[in-house]
Amino acid sequence: MSRRKSQKRNTSQIILLALSLIVAGSMILSLFLAYLPGPRQPEGTPSPWPTWTPIPRPTATFTPTLPSQPSPTASPTALPTATLLPTGEITPPPIGPVLPTATPTALPTATLLPTGEITPPPIGPVLPTATPTATPTTAAGFTFAVCGDSRDGPTVYRRLLEAVSNDGSLFLIHTGDLVNRGSEEQWRQFQEIMAGFALPFYPVPGNHDALDGRLDGYLRYSGAPAAHYSFDYGPVHFTLADSHNGGLTSAELAWLRDDLKATTRPLKMVFLHHPPFDPDGSDHIMAFGNEPFMALMTEMGVDYVFAGHIHAYARAEREGVVYLYTGGAGAPLYTNGHPQAFHHYLRVTVRGEEVTIDIVKI
Fold it and tell me: Domains along the chain?
């Protein structure tokens, strides 16, 4: 009887020892795993600062907006340009091929020498000379374009891209709703539309760009490096935020604060899809995060906020921050209750710390 008790005691000790070894092994394994890199953040989780530096679209074919050096036997083809009207609006360039026009031959002129003598003009034909290419500098100012809500309007959007390509803009920022539902087919169609656009393109996601709330297609096809990002150009810090779920989460607001706090640029511009309020009085605005977002814009000294979502144009100012809504890149217009519902984009010119914004109707 005692031998059986001893055997049971030994068996229990072995089981306890085995359990102890399992527990100890689990603890050691947990400590080891803690130092391994964690899983990839789920989509939509804000990525950490620092900012992203933009590069030109690698698939774009550059078309210069200035004529190339002419040859003695051919005149350069004039490229269509947008025309600034006295009202501040810009008419888009004509669509379609532009036929070359005759270039008048420059007449030879006499040259005044420092001695006061005049040399006679040369005899014979005058060959054309090279025209230096103008290189835009941030010191002299620069121009960029902003549009939003191009979904379901490929014809209008193509005309818009043509106008932006020839109006002197250095890049285009899109405030979201590039496509209607974010399906694979729609994104491939969007890529076909953008294939001939030569300028750098920087979008933010809209609610229509997410398929079942996810941004897989947007991140794969739109050209954006992340759901949100920022970059600097000249005196401006550009912050592009993600509100595709209808508003701004506390995590997104925290990222915005860190991003805006870190910059030393004198001008701050923020771009997102959903506006925090509608100057025309509709409820087509953020579903959440409105007041914290506006308070943050004031606190961080943001100069301009650009949004879409409202298929019209509107402008308002709140506590020193200018809010501009541009949702006229092709989507069906919201003509009810919005007096400035027309297809358009915004042409923004920065000279020093002076900003000029023109409406370009399409």
Answer: 142-361 (3.60.21.10)
